[in-house]
Specification:
- With about 80 residues, the protein is an all-alpha fold.
- It is about 75% helix and about 0% strand.
- The chain contains three helices and no strands.
């Protein structure tokens, strides 16, 4: 997401001809978009996105379980 934001910022600066970005070639300005596409392709292909999603779901599930146990008055014992 940072690369996408950077690409949007650089595109805006180039379009409005602000600062040193106005003198840059469009190839340099648009390169963060290409890097973003490469990152997304790698993340999907390697399973990184799915792994992060599964970790997030497991964390939410455990939080729900803990909240329900606390609501029922069942406190998990701490390991000794």
């Amino acid at each position: 997401m940072y690369l996408l934001g950077l690409g949007m910022l650089l595109s805006l600066l180039k379009y409005l001809e602000i600062g040193p970005v106005a003198a840059w070639s469009w190839w340099w300005v648009l390169s963060p978009y290409a890097l973003t596409l490469l990152w997304w392709a790698w993340a999907d292909h390697s399973g990184y996105s799915k792994r992060k999603e599964m970790q997030k779901m497991a964390r939410h599930k455990q939080e729900r379980i803990n909240k329900q146990k606390e609501a029922m008055g069942l406190h998990s014992r701490k390991p000794r």
